TrEMBL record:
It is an enzyme of class 2 (transferase). It comes from candidate division WOR-1 bacterium RIFCSPLOWO2_02_FULL_46_20. This is histidine kinase. Its EC number is 2.7.13.3. It catalyses: ATP + protein L-histidine = ADP + protein N-phospho-L-histidine. Keywords: ATP-binding, Cell membrane, Kinase, Membrane, Nucleotide-binding, Phosphoprotein, Transferase, Two-component regulatory system. It is found in: Cell membrane. GO terms for biological process: cellular response to phosphate starvation; regulation of DNA-templated transcription. InterPro entries: BphY/WalK/GraS-like, HATPase_C_sf, HATPase_dom, His_kinase_dom, HisK_dim/P_dom, HisK_dim/P_sf, PAS, PAS-like_dom_sf. Residues 116-331 form the Histidine kinase domain. One of its GO terms (cellular component) is plasma membrane.
Length: 332
């Protein structure tokens, strides 16, 4: 009976006798270490699992007679992070092994995210503090500079607010929180709203907008608006003055594709694989200068995943960029 219970466990269970030979191993052990399902009972541990850290764990229990827990790193045949807990079981030694690779990856992502957020928050805060200190030191009475410094403070405060807004939006999307019920959404309406929001930037850069849009999908209007806004905002920012941005919707029986194309500087191929990562920028200095938070495309990606679709990129250096929102048939 106990063997059936152990076989059903997701953790690996290994039992060694007094001379270090394997007397029991459940299916999870075979999966964790990529072993054949039989043939290892009665063999010594290192003959079957060539992981010195595991052997050391067993020996530590044998010497101390106390439970021992350690993290281990498996390199071959696949790289994994393992947590082992070993203890005496009568004359034998029992070892429970848990694959913690996914947990370690999440910890790494969380650590990277905190580091990136800290850095991104520090940049505008440092600038704001610098200008405030200069004003306090006497520049407030300098009519040639005080207004310029205040405008710089306001610009950095806006960047800070935008960054916090994007961080909160991304965190809600990742846990699917705050998503309103889906409904029929006419994409032309959301495109028009986004263009109205971006009208000052369009006018300032003299961008020609070619809007060949139409069609509807089932989705969350405010999230789809945000995805479209982010793509159009990027297209305008990275277009040359007097350039053109094209919005096209194409529909087939299985998909509806909304593409936003600019004819600006483009994105080199080596950046395509990471372009939708949080805080990833092709040109960090230029992105910050233009007011980007580094989260816009990550937000677009998550919005499309919530809608069962995807976002695609086609671009090359100096040849503009085409981002496409792809909606599959069940959302049409």
């Amino acid at each position: 009976m106990y063997k059936e219970v152990l076989e059903g466990m997701s953790e690996g269970v290994l039992v060694l006798d007094v001379v270090g030979k394997i007397v029991f191993a459940n299916q999870a052990i075979a999966e964790i270490f990529s072993l054949a399902n039989d043939g290892f009972i009665g063999k010594r541990l290192l003959e079957v699992i060539r992981l010195v850290e595991l052997s050391d764990l067993v020996e530590a229990v044998r010497r101390s007679g106390q439970p021992v827990e350690r993290e281990m790193k498996l390199v071959f045949p696949a790289e994994k992070n393992l947590l082992g807990l070993a203890n005496l079981a009568g004359d034998n030694i029992a070892v429970i092994i848990r694959d913690i690779t996914a947990m370690k990856q999440l910890e790494s992502l969380r650590s990277d995210f905190v580091a990136n957020v800290s850095h991104e928050l520090k940049t505008p805060l440092t600038a704001i503090k610098g200008y405030v200190d200069t004003l306090v030191a006497g520049a407030i009475d300098d009519p040639d500079n005080n207004r310029r410094f205040l405008e710089k403070i306001a610009k950095n405060a806006d960047s800070l607010a935008a960054l916090i807004d994007d961080i909160l939006a991304l965190s809600r999307l990742e846990v699917h929180r705050g998503i309103a019920p889906f409904e029929k959404v006419f994409l032309a309406d959301e495109i028009e709203k986004a263009l109205e929001t971006l009208a000052p930037a369009i006018k300032e850069k003299r961008i020609e907008i070619v809007n060949l849009s139409g069609g509807a999908v089932v989705g969350e209007p405010s999230q789809l608006y945000r995805a479209i806004l982010n793509l159009l905002d990027n297209a305008i920012k990275y277009s040359h003055p007097g350039g053109k941005v094209e919005i096209v919707i194409a529909k087939t029986e299985k998909e509806l594709c909304l593409s936003v194309t600019d004819h600006g500087m483009g994105i080199p191929a080596e950046h395509h694989a990471r372009i939708f990562e949080r805080f990833y920028r092709v040109d960090k200095a230029r992105s910050r200068e233009m007011g980007g938070t580094g989260l816009g495309l990550a937000i677009v990606k998550h919005i499309m995943e919530i809608h069962g679709g995807r976002v695609e990129l086609k671009s090359a250096a100096g040849q503009g960029a085409k981002f496409t929102l792809v909606f599959v048939s069940r959302h049409l």
